[in-house]
Request: fold
Amino acid sequence: MEKIKETIYRVMRELDYKQKDSLPDVVGAWLTSALSAKERRHINSYSQHKGILRLRVDSSSWIYHLNLKKEVLLGGIRQQLPQIKDIRFFVSDKNEKGKFKNKRS
Reply:
């Protein structure tokens, strides 16, 4: 029998994937143009919620590096998506590590 914690986690993940089409493909294209190939390798996924673009990266050192570029990145994305008010960086869960995924929610 599945534990309640695992069930809730599974349901939340499924809901997250069902909302995939709510974020325009322009974010993926913008990330490709705004970041170097090396920087993109450390971004595992992105999502958007209530005007905040959330980027999941693979380590805290890359959060620091990307935060140094935050104002430039935010200015660039706002030109294409004015509804984005902020960019926040998070360390990915171990299960999420891997190639850059165009995760949208």
Strands lie at 43-49, 52-57, 86-91. The domain at 4-96 is CATH 3.30.300.180 (GMP Synthetase; Chain A, domain 3). The chain has one domain: 4-96. The CA atoms of residues 32 and 40 lie 7 Å apart.
